């Protein structure tokens, strides 16, 4: 009756597919409108074999048509190209969840990492960063949710509790192992099965991947919030002194999944233990329905198809490093699942609506 | 209020995991009781990482306890060992869905293929074969549902329409490509990643795999039903003259999925066309919510994590062979999904309850 | 001293890489010249990471330059585009090993399967089909060796012994499982890792794949040669009555490897046994150094990186089908290895020169 | 004529298979004798499908028989169990290459990491550490070569040049991504294809994996040698002050390959650049035939089946970390290839004998 019409732009990409899957079962969404340039006018099943025969009659439409028909818009479109469309949607009174990178960073930080001025700096003030675990208090009522990057999600969830306890010392190394779907559906020759199976490689090494900026910003905010005595209650625009993170992603032969291993040299004089680190994670994420902290080191398969994050920790006493591990499905908690989670909190729906708890094993 | 308590025996195997996933969300199931010898007394998350932190407090129990507490029992236990437990459950007035092979074949056929007398031939009369698409009329009220084998499901769905139209000629070759989870969770050295990745092989070649008997029985019944003018309304125990099927499964490097390619030499004088074959499949499965017939050749990934079957067909004019293709997720429509589908129809619930339509892509 | 200069056209494709690997170690080859349009002027290591730092100074050159400098030319270039280059090379007095499809089929058969007249029918008479096991007597001195297709190699090696014994009856079904490198190095979106991992599908079903014609021709020749009492001593251009083969390839998630499963309905009145079939294969390939016949069903990993073929057989008594299995590495015996084998026999070198026996396990 | 007889103990494991492959083609090895408890008396092809039909007549023998018949023994047997057999072989006047961990560490370090006293401390003095690139001068004539661990090889090759230049600062984090064959051929349930495909996880986190000790020892020696002005000319038993390395291995879904990513916080006041780091690597490994230094980040597939190591480097200016990357095939340069390399140098053969340069792509 009062169900929403949700529009998905970029519905022929992997982010879009995850949104279709979740929103088509969402109790508050009555209607889906899908946008795609590549598949304009085509039926859903032509683009996505897994939906063959489902949602009959659904065809991909033009951007303007999707914006017009929808109450809320999910943008799973490329960064840079997205900001103007978001501006258009907001001007038309629509609410927006943006999975692109366009509203994740303050305009000056954006300019530094993306090599160009922010296209709509005036809208950044209205954006709320959609890492729900840390920004839950700021999201209700948000007109524009900036959903975090996949690597940034895993890295930030791992680093924030350490940052809040002042444990980021002289070296913060974030190593991410990522499945190849993070590169999107049409990424070219070097992503073919024959080139990637039995292959692992680092890319965009330390200091060159843009998700570094998101991790640093989140860690800085977590530290500032804790210093203020606010616990996890971050304020998006509060000043912070970010830690310098050396982040290097690694492509490994799997379709889905992200494992972030954060190796943090503790500050002079600090020391810790595995039990203490685990306790610290458990406290920090207590009450967060999408986060599990466990004693065993996590594995990516445990969250395949799921919208949860699983964390663990270990203290390397010999070298005085705290290790924090976080796994997510890059297309779940790292993309569509997190976007729907942000949508739920922004709209006042139960945080779990439309999301999946247990993934697929094996 | 009147929700059922469902028991799962063999809950630490892959079939069990799929049942937990589906039944924990099933609207008519209020309580789950899990049985496992290997994990007796352990918490769910110890056995299944994907359920870590979910269904808190759930521990694996002894068989007797599971039977006693449950209204309906799902057996995902090895063949041979299962029949006595089924007998025990039925004697205690419980209803049963059996995923093992113990009640799929008539006792004499069973004896021929399993090399031993059927352990409970008297119960076979009470069993209903759980291939819902063909046996939908016989299942309501069933006390004992014998859920089909994974290969048999794919092969039978492909062959039945041809059989019903008298198109099984001098040669019926069923080639199955199967993911390795079909061998279960603890299958030994030759199933390690290092031995199986970049490897494909046939096993149990023509005439030696027991699922052959299920395919032949179903094809024979489909032919007999059509000859009686009953359409798909099969009668489980009706006499039939089975076609001889040469079935060879092939292990390929993937965790999930079955692709059955059936190459059928048409009888003398018959001929066909791709369009005719597709029409014949569409007619036969018209109204079946879990079956999709499409023009394009199907791929296993389209049903990964789904409970649907996708079929297509092609006519090889040069050699006069009809080719029918069927893909399923061996752990979905081939195991847990089909068991829940049979449960739904046996209990009068909507056929779709607890099942998943679209799988996970990529 | 008298070492040959070998030229490789299409050296930036997978066939080319295999040729570089083998010919750079070949005792009779003193110099390699590489051609590639895509990598023209680039260093070898830019194109092929596995050769980084090896063969220093080697750069990709233009076609004309490669032809001019070489004594023998290997064409790993697309069909259709290759024939004119072969004509040019032959006119310049060079000898040729052609891995494309351009000289494998008689011009009328070619026209039927490729939908266009053969570009150089006058050269077909000079071509010798490079399936060494069957054509060993015709190859010495050949100016133009037409190296067989990968699927055709596996299917033909399996069918030839049955054909020679008159065992191809009413139905000849060849099912091939193939790794994705067969599609080449730049095959587009649907070959990405994310789309192909955990995926299996048939393509070009019965009667539509061009390698069907090669299998039929070889089986026909094998039957004709046997009828003449010539054993394996085929004559390329002898008349034959080909069996009709229903061949369907299946793409499975692996980079390399082909498994051909041939299911042959025996002629009326014939019958057989597994032992008889194995004996028949062993006799047929006795003395062939690149073919192994074994009791166990073969697996593709056993020939990964190798230039050998492994065969086995099974008799399905119930349905009266002979099953013959053959595995090869599609890039070894199915491409570069077979081309070098044909080159060796054409030039009078030991058949094994430059080839690898044992592959890589795991 | 004067060819050696080489014995391989543990010939039914992956290390053994690699040794068979290399030594059966080695110009100085005339005869192979294979030992295996599991396959005692069986033919080679029963254990290793890739050798089916090759080395005819070769059967696995008892340990004593292998030791007696051989001039040189390669031990690919478990640590702890190996040392007594090595003692036995040395006592019989044989020379030994040991791929186990038993003679890699000084007895006191061994005791600390393996939780037990060294079984034969008196033999350690006779052992030479087989990382040829650093210990080339010590190996000629060695009676006992202790071949390094696979992770240790990759990590040590990456760290040594930095250590020699005094660049190991407050934090030395070594992250390794490893294929699953490192766990051996029979590693149990959690290594099945279904559990590992689409899965990545860390194990034995910082400070708990024994290869840490090898990396620290090598880095310490490299620093000490440089301090003495000896360049790479290490002396095995020289005193050193090892850096503390935080090493965490990660299991990724591939059969072969190791990628070590070393993130090193530079000492106070030091700074660097990518060009400087690359230059430093090139200088250090100048003249080493098995090491390639390249500008591009390396990928594991480039060394699959090869005995080479490929390194690269990157300077993260923002966070002042030097990153060094190293890929090897864990079964090539990480095991059998390195063992044969050490054998070659110990016996005065060309370093390359029996080894492979280019691996298999794809």
Oligomer class: homotetramer
- From the N-terminal CA to the C-terminal CA of chain A, the straight-line distance is 39 Å
What pattern of helices and strands is seen along the backbone of chain A?
Answer: EHEHEHEHEHHEHEHEHEHEEHEEEH
Kindly name the structural category of chain A.
Answer: alpha/beta
Features:
362 residues, alpha/beta, 20% strand, seven-stranded parallel β-sheet, Rossmann fold, 12 helices, globular, 14 strands, Dihydrodipicolinate Reductase, domain 2, 2 domains, seven-stranded mixed β-sheet, 30% helix, homotetramer
Question: What does this protein structure show overall?
Answer:
- The structure is a homotetramer of 362-residue chains.
- Chain A is an alpha/beta fold and 362 residues long.
- Chain A has 2 domains: 4-125, NAD(P)-binding Rossmann-like Domain (Rossmann fold); 150-330, Dihydrodipicolinate Reductase, domain 2 (2-Layer Sandwich).
- Chain A is 30% helix and 20% strand.
- In chain A, the strands form 2 sheets. A 7-stranded parallel β-sheet of chain A has the order 3-2-1-4-5-7-6, sandwiched between helices. The first copy, chain A, has a 7-stranded mixed β-sheet with strand order 9-10-8-11-14-13-12.
- In chain A, helix 1 (14-23) packs across helix 12.
- The model of chain A has no long low-confidence stretch (mean pLDDT 95).
- Chains A and D meet through strand 8, strand 9, strand 10, strand 11 and strand 14 of A and strand 8, strand 9, strand 10, strand 11 and strand 14 of D.
């Amino acid at each position: 009756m009062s169900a929403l019409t949700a529009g998905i732009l970029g519905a022929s990409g992997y982010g879009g597919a995850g949104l279709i899957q979740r929103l088509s079962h969402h109790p508050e969404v009555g209607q889906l409108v899908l946008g795609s340039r590549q598949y304009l006018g085509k039926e859903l099943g032509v683009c996505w074999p897994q939906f063959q025969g489902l949602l009959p009659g659904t065809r991909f439409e033009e951007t303007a048509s999707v914006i017009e028909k929808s109450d809320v818009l999910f943008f799973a479109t490329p960064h840079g190209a997205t900001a103007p469309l978001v501006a258009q949607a907001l001007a038309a009174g629509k609410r927006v969840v943006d999975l692109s990178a366009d509203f994740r960073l303050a305009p000056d930080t954006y300019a530094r990492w993306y090599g160009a001025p922010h296209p709509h700096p005036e809208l950044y003030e209205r954006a709320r960063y959609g890492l729900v675990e840390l920004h839950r208090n700021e999201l209700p009522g948000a007109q524009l949710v900036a959903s975090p990057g996949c690597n940034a999600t895993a890295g930030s969830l791992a680093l924030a509790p350490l940052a809040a306890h002042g444990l980021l010392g002289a070296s913060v190394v974030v190593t991410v192992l990522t499945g190849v779907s993070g590169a999107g559906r049409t990424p070219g020759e070097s992503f073919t099965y024959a080139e990637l199976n039995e292959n692992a490689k680092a890319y965009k090494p330390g200091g060159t991947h843009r998700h570094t900026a998101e991790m640093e910003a989140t860690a800085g905010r977590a530290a500032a919030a804790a210093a203020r005595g606010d616990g996890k209650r971050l304020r998006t625009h509060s000043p912070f002194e970010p830690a310098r993170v050396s982040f290097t992603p690694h492509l490994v032969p799997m379709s889905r999944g992200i494992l972030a291993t954060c190796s943090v040299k503790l500050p002079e004089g600090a020391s810790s233990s595995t039990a203490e680190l685990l306790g610290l994670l458990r406290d920090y994420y207590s009450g967060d329905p999408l986060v599990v902290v466990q004693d065993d080191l996590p594995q990516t398969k445990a969250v395949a198809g799921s919208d949860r994050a699983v964390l663990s920790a270990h203290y390397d006493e010999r070298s005085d490093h705290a290790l924090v591990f976080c796994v997510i499905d890059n297309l779940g908690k790292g993309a569509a699942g997190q976007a729907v989670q942000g949508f739920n909190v922004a709209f006042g729906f139960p945080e779990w609506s439309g999301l999946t708890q247990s993934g697929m094993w094996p």
